[in-house]
Design brief:
single chain; 341 residues; alpha/beta; five-stranded parallel β-sheet; binds adenosine monophosphate; binds magnesium ion
Length: 341
């Protein structure tokens, strides 16, 4: 990469430049890549120094481990020390796809990746660009390609806004499909536990392997003294600059509360069907289209900042299917600020 007055020049690559991106990764650089969930910030997972650059670019706390992305199930043998039957069932059913499985790690995983834990999180993405980049370089460590704490990027424009000048390159792969990060399940404990809901739903996981516990921090803030099964649970997440407030209650109560408590700087994250009730509307999708809500959520949160709003009201999502993932993200974006209306 070229340095310009101390700031890195970030190359904008297309999906025809994957060889170039793979070279950058193999040489210890950092490249933003599209995946089916959100854009990821990729470095060689087996090179601790390269992985450390990801933390620096994001401003991510060093105790928050990264997910290792693979492009061939055979790569798993060198990355983990155990691959239990339930993990094999899930891998067979949902990989490639938006599922991350936490397993006991092998000793080739650098400390920077696992943040000192005895486990490693593994995912096999389905996006063709991510797949080709991993196949041409190495297993890749990749968190979401946003500044730590802000909404995850689902378009190349979002990545540029957070990462231009901080990383070597960005591959433009169009908009991400799912829109929220992968589901994270740990199989390193006795009972499989959902640590983060995502594109593969809790219902789908239970249909394959039976009992799956939901970690209490999925829908609550970590209480004092509660250990973070997944270190990412501790941190502020997904937040735009605008203050987000969730309103729980009927549609009529939602509407009345907003009419009584908003001004020109207040936006409403609402459904298509009700958009005419709110002047400053940001539309999440049709009311019952949970997949559209997941797809649009981070774009909508970023849009609130781009339009200069200082406060955003939103509905409390239904905690079912992919709605559980939307709920988990928006609750954190709102710093757990929920008002019963
Ligand atoms: P992100 O990189 O932003 O997609 O976030 C990855 C999430 O996976 C974070 O919440 C991490 O704390 C979590 N994670 C990564 N590795 C592990 C692990 N070994 N055990 C538990 N959680 C993990
Ligand atoms: Mg993230």
């Amino acid at each position: 990469c070229i340095k310009r007055s101390g700031i890195m020049k970030t190359l904008l690559l297309s999906k025809n430049d994957i060889d170039k991106a793979a070279e950058i990764i193999k040489n210890g650089g950092v490249v933003a890549m599209p995946t089916e969930t959100v854009y990821g910030l990729a470095a060689d997972a087996l090179n601790g120094e390269a992985v450390a650059k990801i933390f620096k670019a994001k401003g991510r706390p060093m105790d928050n481990p990264l997910i290792v992305h693979i492009s061939d199930i055979r790569q798993i043998d060198m990355l983990v020390s155990e691959f239990p039957d339930k993990a094999k069932i899930l891998a067979e059913k949902f990989w490639p796809g938006p599922l991350t499985i936490v397993l006991p790690k092998s000793n080739i995983i650098p400390n920077e990746v696992s943040a000192g834990l005895s486990t490693v999180a593994i995912r096999f993405p389905s996006h063709p660009v991510a797949h080709e980049l991993i196949a041409k370089s190495s297993p890749i460590a990749a968190p979401s390609a946003n500044l730590s704490g802000s909404p995850s990027p689902t378009t190349v424009r979002h990545v540029l806004s957070d990462m231009d000048g901080r990383i070597d390159a960005i591959i433009d792969g169009g908009d991400c499909d799912v829109g929220v990060e992968s589901t994270v399940i740990t199989l390193a404990d006795e009972i499989p536990t959902l640590l983060r809901p995502g594109g593969i739903t809790l219902e789908q996981l239970r249909a394959e392997i039976g009992e799956v516990k939901v970690h209490p921090a999925v829908l609550k803030s970590l209480e004092n003294g509660m250990t973070a099964a997944s270190p990412g649970m501790k941190y502020k997440h997904y937040s735009p600059k605008a203050k987000v407030i969730l309103l729980r209650g009927s549609e009529q109560a939602f509407c009345e509360y907003i009419k009584a408590n908003s001004d020109d700087k207040t936006a409403v994250l609402c459904y298509e069907e009700e958009k005419n009730s709110f002047k400053n509307n940001i539309v999440l999708g049709k009311k019952d289209d949970d997949a559209a809500h997941a797809h649009r959520l981070f774009t909508c949160l970023r849009e609130a900042d781009e339009k200069g709003y200082t406060c955003v009201y939103a509905h409390c999502p239904k905690p079912e299917g992919i709605g559980l993932a939307v709920y988990n993200r928006i609750l954190r974006a709102a710093a757990f600020n929920v008002i019963d209306v």
